[in-house]
Structure prediction request, 1420 residues.
Amino acid sequence: MKELQLSRYIRSYLPYIVAACLLLTFLVYLFLSSSQTYEASAVIKYEYRGAVNGKAPDGSNLDVSEVKTSAILTKVIDKLKLNNSMYSTDSLISRIKTQDILDKDEEQLKQAMLEEGEKYEPKPDTVIVSFSATNSEGPQFARAVLDEVLNTYFSEFGKKYLNVGAFTNPISKINDSNYDYIEMMDIINSSTSDTIKSLWARAEGENSFRSSATGYSFGDLANRFSFIQETKIASLYSRILEYQITKNKKILQSNYSERMTQNRITAQVQQKSISDLFKLIDDYRKQMMGSIKAAELTDPLYDHGTSKKTTNIDDTEEWTWEVADHTVTYDKHLTSWRDASEIKSNAMTDIDYYKYLMQHFVACKGLCGGDKLCAGTGKTCSDIGNPDYEKEREKVEKDLKVLVDELDGLFDAVEKTNDEYNEFLGQSNISTLSTVSVTEGLNIPMYMTIAFFFLVIVCCGSAILIGRMNDIISYAFFTDHLTGFNNRQSLDNFLTSNGRKVLDDGTVCVVVTIKNQVEINKALGRESGDNLIKYFADLLKELFAQSDTFKVYNGSSQFFIFVNRTDYITVEYLLQRFSLLLDNRDKFTGVDIHYSVGMSETSRNEIRAIRALLSKAVTRQAEHTAAAVKEDKQ
Amino acid sequence: MKLILLIVAAIMIYCIAAICMKSNDYSVSHIKKVITAKRKLKLWTLLGGVICALILVYSSYYQSASGGSGIITLNYSEASKAQNSNKTRFNMGEILSDEVIDRAIQKGGMKGVTREGLRKALVVNPVVQGDSHDRDSYHISTEFRVVYKANKETRKLEPTTVIQLVAESFKEVYIRKYAKNFGVLRFRAEEAKQFKDWDYYDIAYYLSMRADNISAYMSELNGESPSFKSKKGMSFSSLAAKSGNIRTELLDNDLLAYIRDRGISKNKTEMLKRLSYNNNMMRFDMRKANSSFNINNQAVEMYAAEMTRIALVPTIDGNKDYYMSKTKVGLDDLSLAAKTASDQAQELLLKIRKNSAFANSLRASSSAFGTNPVVDEEIDEVVQSLVNISRDAKNTAQEYTESRMNEVISVQINYPSMLRTAAKCLILTLLFFGALYVLSVTRDYTEVRLGE
Amino acid sequence: MSEKEHTSMIVVLAKNAIEKVRVKLSEGVFEAVGHTKTEKELTKKQKAGYALLSAALIVLALIVIVLAISYVANKNFKETFYQVGCGKVEGNIRIVHLSDLHDSQYGKDNARLLKRIRELKPDIICMTGDMTDHRSYSRKSTMRFFKKVAKVAPTYYIYGNNEWTWDFIKTKDENELLWKPLVDAGIHLLQDRKETLKVGGNTVDIYGILHSSPKNFWSRAGGSFSDAVWKNEDDFKLTLIHEPYLLATKPNERWGDLVLAGHTHGGVVNLPKFGPIYEHEWGVLPVFRKVRCFMSGEHSQLNSTIIVSTGLTNRGLIRVNNRPELVIIDVNRY
Prediction:
């Protein structure tokens, strides 16, 4: 069997090793790529005063997980136009993570408290927000979603904690409703008043804010609404009242009559509440004063307060004085009394207002033809008797439509301005420390490198294993154990595999046969006979060592040697040397060795097929004798 | 090109390994000796080199014809805080928003290209991105690389043109959305056409409001940049003063005073009715305000003094300085509410009185219907003044923002360099050719000849 | 011969042929090329000669390749987009600038060019001269193109040196003058005069210069030009000029908010890094000369933006690295 030579195995399979390593590494790459995830993350910091204490701007506890509420994610899905069947709010929420970042002092405090066995409650003002995407979604998706989430969150934060009170447009499509004209004007007027109030409240709070989308500040918008209220709304109102313009006088009358009744009931109910609260306030005061006086009697130093101990980071203790607050409940009662009184008073005022309105519609102006014909009918006096009524009514309807359109436009501007203000507030109170960055979950180049080297080792090992197994199989099945040459089976395979090939020039077939093997066996014994065969094989091996050959021991003392990329003369020379070596041998000297040698070459003999080449060599065998070597020579 | 390098590397590794295995000599000098030994150049290696060159030239041409990139830089100060110019949050996704893509398609006249088709061909990434998990690596990106790779829909488009159009469209959309909006400053003479249906009082009110708009805006800009002067030498403070003068002198002191004093109206009857209605409405509101004042005042009187203690507590003011303030109790809220209600009632009373005075003037005046030439002339004068001040204000404001906003976004397009591409192709071809040469050497070396 | 034998013979022949090719490819190149002398026998002079010859052949081959590629590339025009900022302008004004067509054809009657102009939806179309060539046999196709393009948007035309030569020097027949068919086609021909048009809410004053020779321009048209540029300053001022040399004569002169010019053809042959090789007014490698030259692209002078088109012509000398150009300008406040 061939020697165990690792380099031989690796060399013979080198192209396969390289190809397999590259291919498998590529497959590893494909697998890793498909499992790749992308994480987009950004760092935000809450900048307003209470943030360091974990408080929101309105004093409540700051909950950073609000960044992944379904309200926000719904807007994100809408904004990015994501496919609702593929992306639900819950699925996106599960992929968003928040991680608190503690500064060094806070870290120390946390460690100290945990060591003391105390409960540590983090109050972070700096947070990492991240969103992960799969390989198919890609890094762009991760970035886009996180950007949009943060955008929406900043805006919602401003809306929820800072710019409290939304703007609504209650007058949109009011023309299509069943309200009477005066009712529509009521709604328009009250919503305009409310809007003006809200706008001025904001203008006073943030007088330098001006929207870049609309160009308006809150003050500008308030002025616009005021102008419309004092001119156009007032004009329409007065014309409706003047001309008694109504869709149905009776329904209108009933409506306002009902309102007055409701207001009266409200006033009565509130009156009861007022009386009860008045009594309660007085009783409460008396009882509270009693208990305080009692406390003062037992403790002269009682000063309506308590002292409280706090421990600082550096373990020093501090005593603070907290004033005992007796006023909260009392204030609440008094405020309730005030509110109830105002509701009652306003209800009474409203009743008078409705009366004022109604007296316009029910008044007989004498246009109906006398005898108060308009009374008791569904039409007003003007409707019956004023020739300009219909023209005026159409004008009022037209002007109402124009007014509503104009107000719609203004409300739209208010909404846009307010939305931008929310974003502005959000950004003013939450800063970005690091913009969205995307990192890969798997370090593919690193894993690929590791995989490559691992595969090189595995492939080389496999090559060695396969090569050695090949050697073993070859030795077991295709090698003649005596000579170490290929055996007959191997020759058959060789002939079969090369049977269809067109042989190159310089392919030589050599046949060497020991003719008197039988005699030698008889003379020297079987073992010696085998040794002779081995001797022949060794000689041939030695002579043809450098060449690209296929050596066969065909049994029956016959050797075939197929030599590639050589020429007739070179092989002939080798065979001559073979003869000389035999003649001057130092083994088997006591016997004559009769052998025959045949040779054929592709170009010389014009043969291109392997079997034909072999046949030619066989037929061209020439007899030789290597005589026994004499004693003195030995 | 990466593939060529990979192939070259694979061939070289194989050849070096094969030579080493064959000769059992792993020294560099031996390998060098084998490779540099004088041999004849094989035709197939030359052919391989030529084919490689052709492939590289074609792929370079194809790449430059189907792909390109550019860098968009945000140049304004707020960008370093990840903000837009109007101090809202900057969102990188807006670079390829629907508006930007639509505008780019419109600008380029890109027939047959849809919004989604173009968007798929574009990718935006920050040039430098930080690391959120490393405090020292926090970074706010202000430069963004736009990469264009043609797809079936966009393959006929010129890559550098696409990137230029996208970047310019983004700049347009950005400035439209986030730069200062001067629409409210615009007052054109055409706006006066609507006055023909309005009464004089309403016209004066409207013109006052417009003058106030301009004045307020100019004051804001003056606060931002008090030293700015336009090419015509106008500053924001001078423009604010001018529009303020229009308001006080031309409008309040002249026009409105004339209208009120003389009782001038195009339709006296209607105006009187309106004033009457207004006053009635305000009386109801005033009644509510007075009632609110009385109730809150009564609550203050009811408040028992002994129910509260005034304590001083430390507080932080806006300048982050400590001071001692007293705790707030219900008394404070009630008295504030009473004051507010009283103020409101006062305001309403003032308005009612003004309206009543005007109504009296109207009743006393002789005109019932129609226009007043004196007032018309006065209005024309005010309109012209406003038109002029509006134009000046708008131009000055625009000049001011242009000096800041025109470079707010700059674009740098990476034009393919022919020389660089040619050099790259040449180097890769030589490398590939070299690898093929080494491969031919290796093949020869591993062949064994009889007798050698 | 049976079919099987026939097939096997073909297979053998094919294998032989493949083998021969394989052997040939495996041969040394020098043998293939037929170089008979060995290296030792070549003298230094011969080596230098061979090297020079090889280099010359390579350079020649490269030139031929470049010219061939350029010729093919010039069959299509490229589009160059510019964005010009001007605070006077509300919204956007889109100008399509054509120049130096020299009766070239992009499709029948320039159908491809027309189609593209339509797709770009311009507000104004400006033609800065040499759209037709005084040496052309027929201008009918170009005139048909003008007629169609004038329907797309208001079209303004000025003469270039070719039109000038034809109308004022070459032709004697009044019926062959160019201005009449241009005006009949609906084109606004500007010869030292201004026209005003409204685009959106903007007023645009367009002034066209008849002949931009510095020698007589100021005496001939200085008055009307100054009027056009200095009056009604709120209007957007657009100046059309064929040869941009005039602009360099008065660098401190106000030429309008936007000036469009042509004539130079971008120097025809444009080398990377070196720019145009030659321009007859500015000489060899004009980019490296100390004088200010407006060869192509966007320039600014005082408060004017100057855009010089390299022209649409693909006739005559082959343009190298300098494709015919259609210019599209968006004017807005950005």
